[in-house]
Amino acid sequence: MASKRDYYEVLGINKSATDAEIKKAYRKMAKKYHPDANPGDKVAEEKFKEVSEAYEILSDPQKKAAYDQYGHAAFEGGMGGAGGFTGNFSGMDMGDIFGDIFGGFGGGFSDIFGGGSSRRNGPSRGSDLQMNMTITFEESMFGCKKEINIPVSETCSQCGGSGAKKGTSPVNCTKCGGTGRVRVSKQTPFGVMASERVCPDCGGEGKIIKEKCPHCGGRGNVEVKKNITVDIPKGIMHGQSIRKNGMGGAGQKGGPNGDLYIKINVMPSKQFRRDGNDLYTEAAINIVQATLGDEITIPTIDGEEKYTIKPGTQPETKITLRGKGAYNVRNDKMRGNLVVTLKVIVPTDLKQNQKDLLQKFGDTLTDKNTKKKGFFDKMFS
Q1: Residue range 168-184, pLDDT digits in tens
Q2: What is the Cα–Cα distance from 173 to 198, expressed in whole angstroms?
Q3: Please, is 370 exposed, middle or buried when counting C-beta atoms within 10 Å of its C-beta (0-12, 13-18, 19+)?
Q4: Which residues pair with 375 in a beta bridge?
Q5: pTM for this one?
Q6: Residue 8 scores a pLDDT above 80
Q7: Structural domains in the chain?
Q8: pLDDT tens per residue across span 12-57
Q9: Contacts within 8 Å (CB) and 24+ apart, 287-291
C-alpha cells in the first residue's frame, strides 16, 4: 500500500497555517478536484478524497495536534477508523466550502447545497429575441423606416399575470412550503450529504395554480400581433442590430418583457464596395482622356459628380473624394470617403484609319536610341 502524503503538502500549506488559511486552501483544492467538476476522472476523485481527508484532520484542533505530534501513525489502528478518515461532513458548511465551485452555472453551487436557497416565484424578466431584416444598399446609406408585424407578449388582462383563474390565486406548494426548494439527503463515499434541489411539484416556483386562467392557460401572458415601426439609421452596416425595448419574450409573474434585436442584412451593391465608412468604386476612361486629361463624371451615392483628371493619368490611378462615403451610423454629420479607381479602357475594334493614326503617333514615341518600342508600338505590332 502506498504511503500517504503529508497533509500539509496535500493542501499546499505549512504547519503554521491559520484555520482560515487551511479552509481557504481546502476550498481551492476541492474546487479543482471535486467529482462533479471532473465527471469520470478517477484521478481527480482520488485527489478529492485525499484533500478531504487532509482537511478533516487539519481543521479539527485535537486531530491536528495529534497529527503534528505523531503524523499518520496517530490515526492508524483504532485511532480513527480506516485511515482516520471518517467521511463525516456534518460539521462543515457545505454552502461555504463549495459555494464557488459551479458559480457560473445557473445560480451557483451554493444553491445546490442550500447556501443560496434562491427562489423563482418572484417577477422575472423575459428573454431577449432576435429577428433578421434585409434592406437594400441604398436604404443602408440613407436610412429608412420599416413596418413589421411581430408577436408581442402582454400581461393577461383576465388574471393580471398570476396565471390563476379569475377569483382565485396561486397557493403555496405543500411539498416545499413555498420555498421552491426541497432538501435531499444522500449517502456518499464521504458520508451523508444534505443538498437542495428544485421542488419537483412546483418546478421551483413555490406556488401551485390549482385553477388555471382559461384566457392565458396559466401562463400569465397572452400573445398578440402588433405592427411596429423600425427606424433604420443612416449608415447602418451589414450585421449590426437595432434594439426594440420590451418587444422580446414575455416576463413572468409581472416581470418586464425582454428586448427584440433586429439584425440587419444589407444587400450588396453592384456599384460600390464598403469598408468601414469608406466606399470604393471604379470609373472607366479611354486612352485619349488618360493621355490628354478630361472632365469626367464619377458615380457617388448622392448622384454623379464631375471631376477633372490630369493629363498623363496612369491606369489604376486612385482618386479620393472626401466626405462622399457612407454616413457614420452614430453621427450622421460625419461621412467616410469615396475612393475611385480609374480604369483605362483600351479599344479593341479600331478601324484601319484609326490604327494608322495611332501607329504614326506611336512612332513618335519610339525610343530610337534603345530601339525599345513604346506603348502604341506594342499595341499594333
Answers
A1: 988 999 888 888 888 88
A2: 12
A3: exposed
A4: none
A5: 0.55
A6: yes
A7: 7-87 (1.10.287.110), 126-168+213-267 (2.60.260.20), 273-345 (2.60.260.20), 351-381 (no CATH)
A8: 998 888 888 998 898 888 888 887 778 778 888 888 889 888 898 9
A9: 287/344, 287/345, 287/346, 287/347, 289/313, 290/314, 290/315, 290/342, 290/344
